[in-house]
Specification:
Layout (H helix, E strand, L loop, with lengths): L3 H35 L5 H11 L4 H12 L14 H26 L2 H9 L4 H11 L1 H16 L3 H7 L9 H10 L3 H39 L4
């Protein structure tokens, strides 16, 4: 059975790594999805196809190729990323970013294109008009971040390969569950699984309520002319 210190370290590391990866993926993926949805440029369709394909990347394959690059004898071996928390974040960003970008593209594609045209007719630039559409599709933006976080918080294969699942150092909740299951400590593994489910639910509820609060505030501003 895992000790209390092992559990809390794995819990903290899971939240830190997956939270950081989800945030970085949002910073990269939302602009990328908006770019693919709202702007025409050479190679756009190719990039969009790659994004859609990468949404279903097998985590273990991502972990393997990332490890081959950062291992001591690999191209980036001199950086010293092998079995570190940093590379765990990197591999999760690789997994989550296509999902965020893909959901963002789909959400913006569903917004009436006349909204952007109307904004530009009032003097807005193309980028400003795109921001207007992003605000209109904010529920989809939240869903994209939730999907990205859900993808990485439950991930085990990639982080095991690049992080090594070292006890007290790079163990996450998912890798700890695998260890407990292999040892036959099924009760402990099941409890850890419930913790993971609870984390996912809490994050979903928090982001959904946050978005609902922002939406209500904007509606109130439109009706009264004042913000809270």
């Amino acid at each position: 059975m895992s000790t209390a210190s092992q559990f809390f370290h794995a819990l903290w590391l899971s939240l830190a790594v997956s939270g950081s990866a989800a945030l970085i993926s949002a910073v990269i993926g939302i602009p990328l999805g908006a770019l693919l949805s709202e702007f025409e440029f050479p190679g756009r369709k190719t990039i969009l196809t790659i994004v859609h394909a990468f949404m279903g990347l097998p985590p273990v394959v991502v972990g393997l190729y990332t490890f081959l690059v950062i291992m001591r004898t690999g191209p980036l071996g001199s950086i010293g990323l092998e079995y570190t928390v940093t590379v765990m974040v990197i591999v999760q960003v690789i997994l989550a970013t296509p999902i965020v970008a893909g959901f963002t593209h789909a959400s913006l594609s569903e917004v009436d294109s006349r909204l952007a045209m109307q904004a530009m007719s009032l003097g807005a630039t193309r980028i400003q008009a795109t921001i207007v559409k992003i605000r209109q599709a904010r529920e989809g933006m939240v869903a994209s971040v939730i999907a990205g976080f859900g993808r990485v918080i439950a991930e085990v294969g990639a982080v095991s390969i690049v992080g090594g699942a070292i006890t007290g150092k790079t163990d996450t909740i998912t890798t700890l569950i695998v260890k407990q299951t292999r040892l036959g400590v099924y009760t402990s593994a099941a409890l850890l699984g419930l913790v993971l489910i609870a984390i996912s639910i809490l994050v979903n509820v928090f982001l959904t309520r946050l978005q609902a609060g922002k939406g209500a505030s904007e509606i109130g501003k439109r009706v009264t002319g004042y913000s809270d």
